[in-house]
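Hey all, quick one. A colleague (J.T.) asked me to put the uracil job into the tracker so the inputs and the structure tokens live in one place instead of scattered across chat threads. No bug as far as I know, just bookkeeping. Sequence used:
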Amino acid sequence: MTHLPKAIARPSSAPSTLPVESTTVPGVDAADRVASLSVLAHEVARCTRCADLASHRTQTVFGVGRADARICFLGEAPGADEDASGEPFVGRAGQLLTKIIEACRLRREDVYILNVLKCRPPENRTPEPDEVDHCRGFFERQLAIIAPDYICCLGTTAAHALLQSTEPIGRLRKRWFAYRSAKVICTYHPSYLLRTPSAKRDVWDDMKLLMADMGVEL
Ligand code: URA
């Protein structure tokens, strides 16, 4: 598997047998994390801090995957499909993300997927800074509960929100950052790949860097 287009189209091998759970936090098992995430999800569902977003949403979109995942993928905000289903990354961009995850010899159910915003912005516009600030406590608490070893930021909004950076995504790629106990890597958003397929090669390079550090053989 040498570059992403092929890898995305056809993951060629069985999922890795490496551990998928995060490094154990003493006294915090997966069941505790599931319970804590459930409490937080109920809090998110009641949130009306962004009055406009709250009044237009079908539902909040919290996150999906293992509560003790070793790696989290952080996106921007729900789109129409996610607003309708309540699950992040289920539309076209989501299907591409799932292919990327599988090309990395991981399974969607073994990782955790979340967004910065929990409500869909109208017309899928970019989140406003105050909306990111309103949701900051939510995605930061989500990450604190999961305590992943790795976080992959998908696109500019996720990278800027997590790292509190303003550098262009092209300059944040191919570098490691720290967020609490996690190692962070940034790559292009799957929606960008749908518009710019030539960038798939760059994303695959980023995934190879990430998988090599995680000890996943591609
Ligand atoms: N784009 C995102 O950033 N998140 C989703 O859940 C779907 C599309």
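Adding what we noticed when we looked at it: The domain at 30-214 is CATH 3.40.470.10 (Uracil-DNA Glycosylase, subunit E). Residues 75-79, 82, 88-89, 91, 93-94, 115, 191 surround uracil (CB under 6 Å).
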